[in-house]
Amino acid sequence: MSGDVAPPVERVDRQLMRVAFILVLGTFMASLDATIVSVGVDTLTDEFGASVAEIQWVTTAYLLAVVAAVPASGWLAGRFGGRRTWLAAVGVFLAGSVLCAMAWSVTSLIVFRVIQGLGGGLLPATGQALLARVAGPNRTGRVISVVAVVPLLSPVFGPLAGGSILSVATWQWLFLINLPIGLVAVLLARCHVPVVPPSTRRTAFDLRGALLLSPGLAVLVYGLTEVAHGRTLPAVAGVSLGLAMLAGFTVHGLRTSRTPLVDPRLFARPPFGAAALALLVLGASVFGTMFLLPLYFQTGRGLSAWEAGLLLAPQGLGAAAGSVLVNRTIDKVAPRTLVVTGIVLILAGTVPFTQLGHGIPDVVIAMALAVRGLGMAMVGAPVMNIVYSRIEPEQLPRASGALNLLNTVGGSVGTAALAVVLESRLSARGTEISWAFADTFWWVLGFCVLAAAGATRLPRTQAGKR
Question: Using an 8 Å Cβ cutoff, are 386 and 463 in contact?
Fold first, then answer.
């Protein structure tokens, strides 16, 4: 099969699920690596004799590289073909992983994390677009429900995996663990993933848009990160310059006669605009919460990284259960019903965290996380199915890139914004750490309300129906 162009699979059979499993390995690597290194910050600080301010760039550099890479995924897949782009992204990611394990200083590690992040940023978007193209519009919903659960699980299992690795091996294995996963994914993809030809419409790369969008997003995230660290001048400069570059990109995208990197007009096309808002705010809620809770468990309750990971595990179980539920109902239930129900569950699961100051027991936290996980699984896949099943096949790579970009930006900007709020509340609350975290979770609830507003604009018709 590796040398032939395969037609879209017409039924959800073993072959299609095999393709979904192979492609999800790439998403799993990229998503897991965004969180697995977080528990190794103390180890890396000791290893390289660096300050916390310096070592945090090991995580930030990866995140910024991911944000910078996602916008180009649609053009690359359209120009070179989905499978070829995906395989190249895996190769870049693995090369970056090996280089990270060979790092001899903080500076070299940061540079190599950028390389790793560039590959990791391409994997989810190209994988989803390739899977949607292979499945066809009438089968996209069920297979996407399998893929979409992975980013929800990685923030939960990343700290557990990182803690386990560091308990039995050196820090280099935080990066080398990617090699067996990536090599297996490449071998299986070459045998079982069909070749999807490049787009017949060859478009020039939007260089001006790339110079405005990707750096603009990266500078904006950098500025927000500096706000959280209390550094006023770089924070103001970063946020201002980032917003100006994004505004410039929007104007360019509306005026250019060429195909822009991300077409701003997409967001005016229903249901893309509503879906985009839902994913943007969902990303802020999901990744923002996964930033706040481990920090609270370790600073507010004195838990280890391993213990914090165990307490977060119920969210992964809820997400897995939600994935099964969505897989069975996504072609039968109206997409808006699934998404709104999911957001309501996320809201219900977030409310207990606004009461952390009262010292809520672990069993309540576990139940709330399970409910949140169930709700999150009911949002991502239906939203993506709405878009993928209603868009022309040749536009899938760019649409997938735009949706993944919004989810990534929502996660990074939302996390940075919540860090700023938390820092403010910690200063205001003093020694009342639990109440400072509780105050911050009211902002997470606000994100969920915004997501619900976007979800009410989604189609009433059943998923997968035109």
Answer: yes
Nearest to 321, CA basis, from 372, 365, 382, 386: 372
- List the end-to-end C-alpha distance of the chain, in Å, as a whole number: 31
Residue 366 is inside which H or E element, if any? helix 362-388
Those residues whose C-beta lies under 8 Å from the C-beta of residue 358, and which sit 6 or more positions away, are: none
Tokens found for residue 137: 């519009």
Amino acid code (one letter) for 36 = I
Angle between helices 150-168 and 14-36 (to 10 degrees): 60
Mean pLDDT score, 161-190: 86
Write the DSSP assignment of 61-100 as a string of letters.
HHHHHHHHHGGGHHHHHHHH-HHHHHHHHHHHHHHHHHHH
What b/e sequence results for 19-40 when a residue is b if at least 16 CB atoms lie within 10 Å of its CB, and e otherwise? Answer: bbebbbbbbbbbbbbbbbbbbb
pTM for the whole thing? 0.73
One-letter amino acid of 281: V
Angle at 395 between CA 286 and CA 184, to 5 degrees: 60
Report pLDDT digits (tens) over 343-398: 999 999 999 999 988 888 889 999 999 999 889 888 877 877 777 777 776 666 67
Beta-carbon contacts of residue 424 (< 8 Å; ≥ 6 apart): none
Find the range with the poorest average confidence among 11-15, 116-120, 237-241, 307-311: 11-15
The maximal CA–CA distance of the chain, rounded, in angstroms, is 64
